[in-house]
Amino acid sequence: MDRRQFLQMLGLVSGAAALSSCGSDKGQKELVSLLVPTEDGIVPGTEAWRPSTCCECPAHCGLLTRIRENRPVKLEGNPRHPVNRGGLCLRGQASLWRLYHPQRLQSPLKRQADGRLQTIPWSQALAEIAEALQHSRRQSRQNAWLAGRTSGTLNALLEEFCSSLGIERLAEFEPFSHAALRQSYGLLFDRADLPRYRGDQADLLITVGADLLETFLSPVDYTTQASALAADQKRHWLHLEPHYSLTGANADDRLVLTPGSEGSLLLWLLQSLASQRRYRGRWPQALQDLLPASDLAATAAATGLRSQQLQQLASRFARAEKPLLIVGGVATGHRNGQPVALLGALLQWLTALPWGGMDFSAGENYSRVGSLLDLEELSQRLAADRIGVLFVSRCDPVRHSPAALGLQGTLAKARLRVGLADLADDTTDQMDLILPLAHGLETWGDTEPRRGVIGLLQPLRTPQQQALSEGDLLLKLLRQATGKSPAADWETYLQRNWQNRFSRVQLGQLMDDGYLTEPQPQLSIRLDLARAAKALQGLHLQAPLTLPAAVIAPSIRSFDGRSRSLELLSEIPDPLTTISYGSWVAIAPQTAARLRLQDGDELQMKTAAWQSKQPVRIQPGQAAKVLTLPMDSLPAPATGIDPLTGEALRYCEALHLKPTGKRHRLPILAGSPSQQGRGLIPTPVHRQQKHDQQNHGPRASFYPEPHYENYRWAMAIDLQRCIGCSACVAACYVENNVPVVGAADHLAGREMSWLRIEPFYDEQGRVDFLPMLCQHCNYAPCEAVCPVYAAYHNPEGLNVQVYNRCVGTRYCSNNCPYKVRRFNWWQHKRTPPLDLLRNPDLPLRSKGMMEKCTFCLQRIRIAKDRAKDQKRLVQDGEATPACAQSCPAGAIAFGNLLDKESGIYRLVHSQRAYRVLAELGTEPAVHYLRPE
Amino acid sequence: MLPVIQEQLLLIKAMQGVCQTLLCLSLGYLAGEVLLTLPGKALFTPSAPQPPSTDTAQGPKVLTGRRAGLLIALIMACNLLLMKIAYRAALFTGPFWGGLTVLFIIGLALILTARQHLKGAHPAGRLSLAAAVIGDLLLLSICYFLLNAESLLLTPEAWPFLATRPPLLLSWHGTVRFAQFTLLALMLAGLDRRRNRQVLIFGAALLWPLGQILELLLGPELARSPWLYLAAALALMTSAALALMTTGPLLQKRPLPLTPPLAGIIVLAMLWVLGAQTARENTLTGVALAGLQLPPVAGQTPAIPSAPQTAAKPQAAPAIDGGQLFQQKCSVCHRFDQRLVGPPLNTVLGKYRPDKNKLAGFLRNPQKVDPGYPTMPNLNLTEQEADAVAGYLLDRETAQPAPR
Amino acid sequence: MPKWLPHILLCAYFGGFLLLIAVLAWFRPAAHRDNSQPIAFPHTVHAGRLGLACNFCHESVAHGPQAGMPAVAKCVSCHQAIATERPEIQKLLSYQKKGEPIRWRRIHQLPDFIYFSHKRHVSSGLDCSACHGAIAEMKEVRRVRSLQMGWCLSCHRSRGASFDCATCHK
Fold this sequence. Notes:
heterotrimer; A: alpha/beta; Rossmann fold; Barwin-like endoglucanases; 4 domains; seven-stranded mixed β-sheet; globular; B: about 400 residues; mainly alpha; Formate dehydrogenase/DMSO reductase fold; Cytochrome Bc1 Complex, Chain D, domain 2; 14 helices
């Protein structure tokens, strides 16, 4: 008699559960046949991988999409793609939530007189637009098209569309426009463009404000570069910022300066470098004469750094063979933004360009992107009633324009406002017509994020709704308005364009690999002395911001806020504060002590024109009078426009801070900000004391010694490389169908993540990240206490949880010293169509079951199946868990410990390897590599 | 070896049912009777005064003596044989069954002899007591074993593994069936009017539904047909009738009439046997018995590339008739002069004319040729068969002029 | 104590059990209540009389975890010419015309939490009939094995296959 029968009988005897247990397989499923046989090489019930491109942020990383049952179920970085080389950030992982988002716009919507939206058919929507276009032409109003960054063939089609319909194509809108950088490069080098910075080749990286790991240009690319740099003892990475960002947390050194004082620092650096013998020859005297005066003491006073620190910085900079300075992010988002960008560019010209630290030939494709100044102009034209039909596609200018612009009010003046979007946002709320756009994984297309890199988009799922790709929409509209269109549909148009542009070989490559690289001519960047002199003449350094000031920081979880609506990204806690849901302001412990604030207490921040109330999160390492406001916390994350550059201002200065006395419950997932002396992350190797490692005597056990025959799966996590970006967490959520439970459960301490990143701060506020997951112990404490043998040690060293055995005693979780087991308090169900985002290789765990990391058992199984077909063992690198695969920093290694040739064997036996809470004698299979 | 009596299968199964009912009743009576007599006999010391000896004379006259024993053994053998004919279950070897029968006869003989002694007026000797105990235990364990074997019949999927895992023989279902058998035995023993044992019948009838439900639940899921539930319900009602029948006499302490309870018990036993037969009808079908022979386990070392396998062919294989094979396997889709599923053969055979082997190769491993037709399925022809069909096709094609 | 009380109690006792049996009968596993299919596909003809190999229709049985149901197009590829006048084939053709997949009733179903690969079992030399019985003799496919863990394990044990929970439990 098996357990099921036993329970059945128990139910019968008690008389209660008789019906439910007997009718258990009443919900008999169907076997649905296909209509036509599958493509060659596709076997039902197995995965297929198709290349594509991620469209969650402008970086456009290359993807490999895992297809199961005709739908994408997992995204992974394409290992050969030149942009991301296999890594994928958490937003990219989560972008599948956008594909299956329950609130995806389904069909064209029209706003009624009373403000409500009504579903209309496409034909009606197109007809209305065509009529309005004609109408406004007759009334000699301009029609305009405002889009987010557009590249590739869509760019060409849009051009054709706009010119044949007489629509003005406005400068594209991106909240992170990097306008100051482009402006200064334009001024100095006549290239208003964003280069690719070669941090991978630099021996000294100095980043000023540029949040390489979070949102700067191409985060995955720079994450790979920066983590390699941080892991290399011979190279150095220094970050300067006023607040505390993840980038600062991971730099070798982080210097905190007064907000707005970056210009003074760069000026002083430029002067001191220009006087160095090495750079003296390159630095023209004409420019030297124009540079404003600067001295060490004044700079130290302005920046708040000690003069010793400054000197050290300058001498390090001067000594470096291949120094690279990157300026950007919050450093250009204040009133000194233009001088910062300009001085930064001059420093780059002086130090980085000679050794090729900036590659303009592989520049980021931002040439059509404008700035807030363009938006300001649009707003003025709208106010003057000169705009007829305004299209807003794939961007949210309403949220991202400062209130001073008044865009929300002036938008109403347009005769017809047409929004193209996949999810509703602040801008679509202002639109008369909302047209649903298809997701990047539902349509054909191409992107050109970087010069010479062409990425492929292909339909991997038929759109369930009436959503159209933007290309199809343009062609339909063109046909509606003019009666003819350049192609029958977007796919034809695209194909024709590709055939004209690429050779057959190239096209085949694009289809197979999902990307194409075209060699670009090397650009020689010359400093235009006359223009540089003119620019320097106009250089005016204003005083730094008045403290206390708040920095409105971009978020690794939502980029500029565009990924806010993906619930998974709210479920994954912010790496530094470990807050998952809600908004907050991070303040320094000193400030908190002064204002008698604790985590969750509400703080009012007020200036003459602006105010906000946010719950407080105490952030170790934060500067005393600087507050960090995550962008998502604010309804309008730009406080103004820098009139010189058109950048959004991301600061609030001269704040009045006042606790309101109210208290919020913040879902803070970290148990403690400190290691409490438990040595979870031991001191680096070079500082290790002799008696650091304690000897715990011989082990004694009542249980048989585990014996492994072919495999002993193990993991090594390099803490020196780990940057805490949480890409692994997102990958784990998607791969393993981990339920997303929401804020209420997080507040009750019932989060379900199998893998969490624990930040541990030291007294100086430096942080180390410890990814914590099931340790798959040799002597697992959870196994011994399970009364029904649901926690079981398998012959390959995996600590297996047999779900249908589990009866939910939670003994295992109580006995787990690592606290990695998660209990299903509810039956977690996803709203359709989000239920389609389900990896069929895993069952859905029901209420009352314990679950935890399995080392991606299903992936091991696939690798073993393949190996078995070829009558061999799984080779090194064949089985990779989702977390290890997604890591942009390459911090996680996985493999078979019995294979002495494997990478994991080498890592586990390295001098740096240790195990967390080793003194308990659980002998985990997860080995951590401490910093060197 | 065994006669193939497909047409009379129903009759054989009916006979088997009758045999099993008889066997069950007689063995149940014997076992129960002896089991109940034993404690009383063993407690009395030989010197103690005997209870009135009248009861021995008036006890049921059935089932005494060697003739009865012979009859029981015969029914037993009959039952086993009929079972084997009806279900063709090659579960155990002949010696195994033979040994079982011998043990059964020994047990029967022991118990019968002992019973005579126990019934006799003389005090029971130690020897006869021991014989009774051994015989009873032997019989009961054989019954337990047989009932488990009968349960095993319901799960043919377990048969192939019995050789390597003998404990598979024992099952909860068989155990419950044995419990039901003991309940029947107790009921039969309760029929003794002299000793007012109707409480036994009453108790067993009360316990019966429990066994019935357990039997239903523990039996293989595949066996549960509506008829099985019906049989179970009828058995339940019979046990209810038995219980109701005995209530009155039990409460008023008056003797129980013999015939109605006996009839009830017989009906119950029949339904009990019938239930098992119904279950067998559901699981022990020909389609389920196919595929029970597992292929030999490949060697544990997979690395050695085995020698190219040569299909085991009988030396003097009869010549394969290509025409017959064509009719069997190809004619569904192919005609010579018209399109069905595949192309008219006359239009495609021409290109194979010079090379028969090429055609045979195609037949063994068909490839897509003409996109206008579906790919021909691989019919798993052997080399010889393909050769024969190819020969037939080319012969036939030459025989008739190809219509243009 | 009234005279009829014991009788009533007994009737209630047995009636309760009778009710239980009725309930069990009513809720008996759906798998055996109805094996009928949207199209009465005769395996007796295809696998039996014609002797088509199983993997002619169930193409991926040796290549993947699922045996695979033949696509409508595959059925039609033969049946555009064969027996097109029969009502069941008409049904099939109407499926094709409507562009609708056939929703076959599932007879063999393992629980959601079980990983089972047809490929592994076929490649280890097991015949389809070991688990499915003589399909070629079934007019209407029915299940003949319990598909329960004990049965899986007896075979795994006797054939020296993996005995690790994680092999099958996802």
